[in-house]
Amino acid sequence: ELAETTHGFVGADLAALCREAAMHALRRVLPDIDLQEQRIDPEILEKLFVTSNDFMDSMKSINPSALREVFIEVPNVHWEDIGGLDELKESLKEVVEWPLSNISSFQRIGIQPSKGILLFGPPGTGKTMLTKAVATESQANFISVKGSEILSKWFGESERKIAEIFKKAKQASPCIVFFDEIDAIAPIRGSAAGEPRVTERMVNTILSEMDGLEELRGVVVIGATNRPDLMDPALLRPGRFDEVVLVPPPDENARKEILKVHTGHMSLDEDVKLKELAKKTEGYSGADIEVLCRKAGMIALHEDMNIQKVSYRHFKEALKKINPSTTPKTKEYYQQIAQKLGRGL
Ligand code: ADP
After folding, report:
1. Dihedral, 330, 331, 333, 338 alpha carbons, nearest 10
2. Pocket lining: 287 vs ligand 1, CB cutoff 6 Å
3. How far is CA 169 from its chain centroid?
4. CA–CA distance, 144 with 129 (Å, rounded to integer)
5. Mapping DSSP to helix (H, G, I), strand (E, B) and coil, where does residue 334 land?
6. Hey, whose CA ends up nearest to atom 7 of ligand 1?
7. Residue 1 and residue 6: Cα distance in Å, rounded?
8. Strand order across the beta sheet in which 116-120 lies
9. What is the 44 CA–ligand 1 centroid distance (Å)?
10. What does the alpha-carbon distance between residue 262 and residue 25 come to, in Å, rounded to a whole number?
């Protein structure tokens, strides 16, 4: 029965649960016991039984760690793993890396660093990668939370969780807090489906945490969204996400760089010309290109398990199977938003 009711518990959680149940039993028999001070009479211990009820009561205070923990990561993505986006890498260095590693220079000349940056653009264009790379390169810790997960996993306690995330970030500073799919937790007020009040309260929590960020030097918030037009504009006011940057679908040059990254470890035939492939991949995002390269490799293996190299014909075959995820319309849509926000690159 216990095994059934402890779905999602890892070993450490089960150990904590058993300990808590034992403590519960002790407190039941000896309500005034001070476990730091007192030795327990062995006779009492001998008669002490941990009951099913002790376990059930303990379940209320021990949650599975996957849901409880805010994980601090140390990412391992480097600038050179990201093809293209050169200007963006430079601005991220300025906005994120400088304040984290040179806060005293900002103080000396008397300007406030940005507290947050919002990356927007179509899916698979490298927003997450950029955030991880800037954490790696500035030797910062990294806490990543998905908007949709905050709502589903932490339902009913999401504000508390957000406060906890900021608390952890302060403790682990220098630290980058990454809110992926931030539109899910910060939709335009009153527009959220389901529980508008929950999201409104969450936005307020994020706002007040970000307002307090001056004192918490060494914490930078990065948000990412595919739908900035659905976001609460309160988050875009100065002093919050004061940098709002478009991560566009890659142009031909950027696609060549991305192809270079993803074919870097492949054994390529001489007839594979990345420049040519870059021309043929209009509309492909970074993520699409990654899938395309893998597909070309798989097609080569299908042809012959002993094949030595992946050739152009394999890529041509792969191009027929993997479609681009963006259209000229997508590009236009994001350009328009960038213009409206006035802060696109
Ligand atoms: P987003 O956060 O914008 O949805 P991600 O950063 O998660 O996109 O990218 C998904 C995957 O696509 C990455 O793991 C990477 O393999 C590939 N990718 C996307 N953009 C690039 C890029 N500019 N250079 C190299 N790989 C990329």
Report:
1. 150
2. yes
3. 14
4. 12
5. helix
6. 128
7. 9
8. 141-146, 175-180, 219-225, 116-120, 241-246
9. 61
10. 58
CA 9: distance to chain centroid? 23
Does 246 sit in the ligand 1 pocket, CB within 6 Å?
Answer: no
Which sign does the torsion angle of CA 221, 226, 232, 234 carry?
positive
Of 236, 258, 241, the C-alpha closest to 249 is 258
Pocket-testing residue among 77, 79, 85, 125, ligand 1, by greatest number of atoms within 8 A of Cβ: 125
Residue linked to tokens 């480097």: 78
Ligand 1 proximity of 176 Cβ (cutoff 6 Å): no
| CA dist., res. 203 & res. 99, Å (int) | 24
Q: Is the CB of 75 under 6 A from ligand 1?
A: no
pTM: 0.78
Q: Mind listing the pLDDT tens digit for each residue in 108-156?
A: 998 888 888 999 999 999 999 999 999 999 889 899 988 877 777 776 7
* Mutate-to-test residue for ligand 1 from 89, 118, 129, 326, highest number of ligand atoms within 8 A of CB: 129
User: Residues 280-308: pLDDT tens digits?
Assistant: 999 999 999 999 999 999 999 999 999 99
Q: How far is the CA of 288 from the centre of ligand 1 (A)?
A: 9
- Bigger pLDDT: 207 vs 328: 328
Q: Atom 21 (ligand 1): residue with closest C-alpha?
A: 286
